[in-house]
Amino acid sequence: MASRKQDKDKSPQSRLHALGVARLNLIGKYSSQLMDAYIKGHFDETSINDSALDKLVKGRILHRPDESQPLSLRPDMNTLIASLTEDERKRQINADVAGQLEQIRTLVKHFSDAQYRGDYVGSEHHFQLLTEKVHDMTGQFSDAIVSLWNRLNSDFGFVSNLGDKIRENELAQKQLRRLLDGFELIDFNEMIELAQSSGPLRKLLVSQLQVVISDHSSSLLEVQKRLVELMARFRQQQERAQLISNMAAFLKQHPKFEVGDYPNRTNVPENINHAAPIIASASVALDRVGDQQPLGDIVRSLELSTNEYVEPLSSGGEFDLEEVLAVEAKHQQLKEDVENFFISLFDSHSAVSALDYLEHSKLDWDGETWLFQVIAEYEGLARDIRKRFAFDKKSNETSVFNQLHVIEDVHLSVV
Amino acid sequence: MIEHGPLLESLLAGASICQVTDEEAYRRLSDEVVREELNHFLRPLNRRVASSSDNSVYFLAYQELNGDAREHLSKEFKQTVQSLLPLLEWMQLVQESLGRDGALSAGDTIKFQEFALRTEDNQSLRQRFTQLASDRFFKSSSDNLDAQLKQVFKRLKEAGYLHQPHKDRQFYVVTGKIEQLVEMVRFIKDEESLPLDDMPQQESMF
Predict the structure, then answer these.
(1) CATH code at B13?
(2) CB contact under 8 A, A241 and B14
(3) Which value does ipTM take for this structure?
(4) Is residue B23 part of a domain?
(5) Which residues in chain A have Cβ-Cβ distances shorter than 8 Å to B139?
(6) Which residues of B touch A272 (CB under 8 A)?
(7) Subunit contact B13:A161, Cβ cutoff 8 A
(8) Are the C-beta atoms of residues B40 and B28 closer than 8 Å to each other?
(9) Where residue B206 falls among pLDDT bands split at 50, 70, 90?
(10) Domain total in chain B
(11) Sheet architecture: strand order including B17-18
(12) Taking burial as the number of CB atoms within 10 A of a residue's CB, which of A356, B113, B132, B162 is the most buried?
């Protein structure tokens, strides 16, 4: 009995306090489910029991925007979470300066009235509300500015593609313009008039506000500059990506597309003037006595054998990939033809002359090249496989003095 | 002049020098006095130091466009035009598979493994990549994705579009040559008055 009586006696303020605590506790109790709702966009009604759900709705935390819609967070809750988590996706910028000024004017009138009436408690209360209002307003400005900076510094990283970034940047620029327009609505002459002779009012409405607003203005102008720069960069990126994909699409649609003969125009465009490479090469020179010692040292340090001759790097020649590839392809063909020759041996019972095969098969190889490849192929076989072929070099001694033999043909058969 | 020896040699050998390929050489070439000195030396060789329009790449151009020079330019220009489509397609593939914002530009890094994984996991990317790899610019004859990827990166490195800072690490940086390529595309578009801006847009690309 006593406690209920006490409850009734409680001032409106303490009742407000109790209600606030209860609702804040609700938020804390279901924080995880509420965050899920924040992320998914709707509240999972099966995650908690009905009475808890009821409390959340009555507590003005959840609402059903429409009969057919699932339960979701109230807009205020969304804003609160976005601001607490600095979630730029959902964070809002409140640029309604006019409305706030209207409230400030009203509060100033309440305050002056109360003072005029000699109601000190009332005037103190109004002054407190007024201070809060002004701080709210400036706080919102600085929040908005911080939020704009965050977006800027992350290059709008919270959206994934360029198109979205450009739209977000446009939005941010609009919000920024509204904020700047709002600043212009704050007329300090009016503020001075409102404050009249009251010292605290003057301090709150004129000196403090002026400092804050001028700080914010310069900060916003900087943000604006950076937003415009970033936008230019986004646009440039977009233009580049479009250029690339459009040109690729165009070339695909027009496979026979021919470009102009720029290299033979009178004025050759700068960007196609790329000179052919020159390789600065140098050779061993013995015409300077002083160089002979170091060159000798180099020669001695090399393990040279007169049988191995390494082709030195040729100079001047232009590296032509197509030519190299053509040679490679030709060599590959030669190898294949020789392999076919080896395979054909299995169909024959007697030894086959490599040159005869070449002639019969009407292959277009030079005899010497052909023999060389046949021998190389034979030598390249694994020892076991090599044993399965009878290999006979037909050679002639051309000179009695140095026992030089020239291979004239090769006969092969399967053993 | 003697301190520019190695720089001259690589320029003469046909190198395109940008901030990615050789920062120190690029810094030196940015100095007009140095370029004047080099040009003085290069004049008898009918060469001069040239740069892309945004000065991001330096290379050698012909001083005087005589017959030989024009012949070489024709050959090279033809090759560039032929390699345009495969290179542009490759740029698009990288942009899409790595989920990049804009098109590739100089200084962007590509991790081979990341690109390989994304391509492997996505059937359509994989198909497009396989087709691209067999293009005559990349010339991969393999059916195996890994071999195709290796061949494509190898070719891009050879052609100077990619720079590999560490030999044993599969990590590549896009060079200034890509800017030259884009410049060339823009140039051809303008010169030939190609109606590229009226092409149907593929929104998903951007």
Answers:
(1) 1.10.10
(2) no
(3) 0.84
(4) yes
(5) 325
(6) 73, 76-77, 80, 184
(7) no
(8) no
(9) very low
(10) 2
(11) B17-18, B57-62, B47-51
(12) B162
